[in-house]
Amino acid sequence: MNLTENKGNLVVGFKQVKKLLSSGNCKTLYLAEDCTLNISDALRSIAGDTEIVTVATMRELGAMCEIDVPASCAAIKLI
């Protein structure tokens, strides 16, 4: 799966994803299973009814976002 098909609507990283979730404008949240519990719990607690997709590793999620570093989370904005 390649998330960059949604490039203009893709945000990567805890701070940006948390901000998007808090605004209520998040369509889908992607969480790496190996991210820290603090990150996972924080995002899940504010996700509400947002669809949550888990990805096996941070490295895999980073690759899905076409970045050269691991990513703990990513999200797609509502259009």
What is the strand and helix layout of this fold?
Blueprint: E1 10-12, H1 14-23, E2 26-32, H2 37-47, E3 51-55, H3 58-64, E4 73-77
Parallel strand pairs: 2-3
Antiparallel strand pairs: 1-4, 2-4
Walkthrough of the structure:
The protein has three helices and four strands. α1 runs parallel beside α2 (37-47). The protein is globular. The chain has helices spanning 14-23, 37-47, 58-64, and strands spanning 10-12, 26-32, 51-55, 73-77. By secondary structure, the protein is an alpha+beta fold.
Task: Count up the helices.
Answer: 3
What's the story with the biggest beta sheet?
A: 4 strands, mixed
Strand order of the largest sheet: 1-4-2-3
- For the residues shown, what is the average pLDDT? 94
Give the fraction of residues assigned to helices.
Answer: 25-40%
Which overall shape is indicated by the principal axes computed on the Cα atoms? globular
E-strand count: 4
Q: Compute the separation of the termini in Å.
A: 20 Å
Rg of Cα set: 11 Å
Q: How large a portion of the residues is in β-strands, by DSSP E?
A: 25-35%
What's the order of the H and E elements? EHEHEHE
Unreliably modeled segments: none
Instruction: Output the structural class.
Output: alpha+beta
